[in-house]
């Protein structure tokens, strides 16, 4: 399973260096050594392959941080890295609101303080038929939900990005209905794979990758992984998300990776890893079949 387990967390100072990450043989040896020194089930476990799963090689840091979708900073893939250099991520306030017993506004440091960081390696699959394999660092969303104590009326979790046209220049134009928002059904948000990421490759998130905190839902297309979150709302009705408003026939609420349901303008059956030329078959739910029970009995062509 491509997920770090265990109660002890490797501090950033002990994270395997990037150049070791990128050499597969060295990475396995180094990670195994760290694991032996701490507890079973650390990053070495991320190399375990599930039956029928394609081998996952980590995407280089340079590619992860220079090929991005972050429309607040531009619509070309290289725009976010170029245009977000001066984006200020401190101080940063996250507001919890809606149908919860413990709403509140928190500075990022206070928001993160109760939680232990976890290291996970996840595939990120984009609707444009490209993918990456990224070593994330973050906190399980379900821990935040438990702390907020949602009421019975909370059926969905909605996320909202910062609205600041001075810092995010493309928000001056009606590319999308700003601020960007996304949503998950409560059981999706509570799934142990769902992560609020604060870093990658053992470093803080770069601005272009959604600093200082973003959502990562590895069985869904990448646009569900909203960046630079400032609000988490617990709501009763299914949110109408940014891409649903922009293209309701192309972007559904669920947005599960599904090779059997094509985007209206291209097939989803094949994908290409960034930095690679050979295409590969797209895996149902991006390979994370443990989430299939969340959608038992649903018509996934209707609820796309």
Describe the structure.
Residues 1-17 and 24-54 have low confidence and may be disordered. By secondary structure, the protein is of the alpha+beta class. The chain is built from 8 helices and 12 strands. It folds into 2 domains: 1-48, no CATH class; 50-295, Oxidoreductase, molybdopterin-binding domain (Sulfite Oxidase, Chain A, domain 2). Strands 3, 4, 7, 8, 9, 11 and 12 form a 7-stranded mixed β-sheet that branches.
| CATH homology superfamily name of the largest domain | Oxidoreductase, molybdopterin-binding domain
Helix/strand-derived class? alpha+beta
**How many individual β-strands?**
12
Query: Main beta sheet: strand number and arrangement?
Result: 7 strands, mixed
Q: What is the percentage of strand-forming residues?
A: 15-25%
Q: How many independent structural domains?
A: 2
Terminal CA distance reads 25 Å
Supply the key terms.
five-stranded mixed β-sheet, 304 residues, Sulfite Oxidase, Chain A, domain 2, 8 helices, disordered N terminus, alpha+beta, 2 domains
């Amino acid at each position: 399973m491509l997920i770090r387990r265990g109660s002890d967390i490797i501090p950033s100072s002990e994270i395997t260096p990037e150049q070791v990450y990128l050499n597969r043989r060295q990475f396995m040896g180094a990670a195994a050594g760290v694991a032996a020194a701490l507890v079973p089930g650390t990053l070495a476990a991320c190399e375990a392959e599930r039956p029928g799963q394609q081998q996952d090689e980590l995407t280089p840091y340079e590619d992860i941080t220079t090929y991005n979708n972050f429309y607040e900073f531009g619509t070309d893939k290289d725009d976010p890295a170029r245009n977000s250099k001066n984006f200020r991520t401190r101080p940063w306030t996250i507001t919890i609101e809606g149908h919860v017993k413990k709403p509140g506004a928190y500075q990022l440091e206070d928001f993160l303080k109760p939680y232990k960081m976890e290291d996970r390696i996840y595939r990120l699959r984009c609707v444009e038929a490209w993918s990456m394999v990224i070593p994330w660092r973050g906190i399980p969303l379900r821990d935040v939900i438990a702390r907020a104590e949602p009421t019975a009326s909370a059926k969905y979790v909605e996320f909202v990005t910062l609205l600041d046209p001075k810092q995010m220049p493309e928000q001056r134009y009606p590319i999308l209905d700003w601020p960007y928002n996304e949503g998950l059904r409560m059981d999706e948000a509570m799934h142990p794979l769902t992560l609020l990421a604060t870093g990658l490759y053992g470093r803080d998130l770069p601005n272009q990758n959604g600093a200082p905190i973003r959502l990562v839902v590895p069985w869904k297309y990448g646009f569900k992984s909203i960046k630079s979150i400032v609000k988490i709302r617990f709501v009763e009705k299914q949110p109408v998300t940014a891409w649903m408003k922009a293209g309701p026939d192309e972007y559904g609420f669920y947005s599960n990776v599904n090779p059997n349901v094509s985007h209206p303008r291209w097939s989803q059956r094949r994908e290409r890893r960034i930095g690679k030329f050979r295409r590969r078959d797209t895996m149902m739910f991006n390979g994370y079949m443990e989430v299939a029970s969340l959608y038992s009995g649903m018509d996934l062509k209707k609820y796309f």
